[in-house]
Write a structure and sequence with these properties.
Blueprint: E1 6-9, H1 22-33, E2 38-44, H2 54-59, E3 66-70, H3 72-81, H4 92-115, E4 120-125, H5 136-150, E5 158-163, H6 179-186, E6 192-196, H7 197-204, H8 209-219, E7 223-228, H9 258-267, E8 275-279, H10 289-305
Parallel strand pairs: 1-2, 1-8, 2-3, 3-4, 4-5, 5-6, 6-7, 7-8
């Protein structure tokens, strides 16, 4: 495995994402394991790191694969019933709840890395403010308190803050903390930033903001990772939605092209990236495994071309 291998956010393409059977799920991971240029996977940690449990995932994936864990899925799940949940939330009780969830993540990652040394290389965190509270200052203050606490713990992996579209954007999807404030809070810590192409494009409602965000993060000495998800203006992946649309080579409505990947890698060349990769979604719940895998292989091929 070389540094040109990628982290694959495969879970939105996995059959389990659409509650399909275990046999299909096993077939999916077998096919992904036979795919070249895969360094490892991005996996959400909810209660466990896979819907069928941690051991299931380790049994069905190559031992040499590395994992980037992400808090995004559980964060969004909890915000579905309580918009105050998040590290940048001005709702103090829900901010504490969120910090406790990160304590669960610390225990989970530590357990995995004790069993398989070096397995989880990074945790992607998200700066989720209190929904409906437009105060960037309150969100920044809350986020700083959460980070001061979490960054002091003994993490066995890198911490990466994944920038999501900002609360100050024209029509926010996630509406999390703006990049400037995120950088301000993590400046004195070892936490670096991941720029996700779609999440920056959604914030600006254009395809130029992602490279601007990369430049800002590089200038601050804080760029740690690049992830490529697409977004669309029309079609089944919606209008500027955060639905991880495939590349334009696979999904004609997608605004994300190989050129955009090249542009970001060029802008990031001054930074030492901990990882780069894709996170793409199979929108059709009834799609077969070969179509799900085709989306990911097309994505890898775009990264290789770039």
């Amino acid at each position: 495995m070389t540094h040109t291998d990628f982290i694959i956010g495969a879970y939105p393409c996995a059959p389990s994402f659409h509650q399909r059977g275990e046999q299909e799920e096993a077939h999916f991971w077998r096919e992904l394991a036979d795919t070249p240029y895969v360094r490892g996977i991005e996996q959400p940690i909810l209660e466990n790191i896979h819907p069928y449990g941690d051991d299931w995932l380790f049994r069905h994936t190559p031992a040499e694969w590395r994992i980037v864990a992400t808090a995004v899925m559980e964060t969004m799940r909890r915000r579905g019933s309580n918009g105050g949940f998040g590290l940048a939330s001005a709702d103090e009780a829900q901010r504490r709840e969120s910090v406790e969830f990160y304590r669960h993540l610390l225990q989970k990652v530590s357990t995995i890395n004790t069993r398989f040394p070096g397995k989880v290389i990074a945790l992607e965190m998200q700066a989720a403010p209190q929904a409906g509270n437009a105060s960037v200052a309150q969100a920044t203050d809350a986020f700083a308190r959460s980070i001061n606490e979490i960054a002091a713990w003994d993490w066995p992996c890198d911490l990466i803050l994944e920038h999501c579209d900002a609360m100050t954007g024209s029509a926010p999807r996630k509406g999390f903390l703006p990049l400037e404030q995120v950088l301000e809070v993590v400046r004195e810590t070892d936490i670096s930033l991941c720029i996700n192409w779609a999440r920056s494009a959604i914030e600006g409602r254009n395809t130029t903001l992602p490279v601007q965000h990369v430049n800002v993060a590089v200038k601050a000495g804080k760029l740690g990772a690049l992830m490529f998800s697409g977004t669309t203006a029309t079609g089944e992946y919606g209008q500027w939605q955060d639905l991880h649309a495939p590349f334009s080579s696979f999904c004609p409505e997608s605004l994300m092209t190989t050129e955009h990947v090249s542009e970001l890698f060029t802008a990031a060349s001054a930074a030492t990236l901990k990882f780069s990769g894709i996170k793409l979604l199979e929108i059709n719940a009834n799609a077969d495994v070969s179509h799900r895998i085709a989306i990911l292989r097309d994505g890898i091929s775009n990264l290789k071309k770039a």
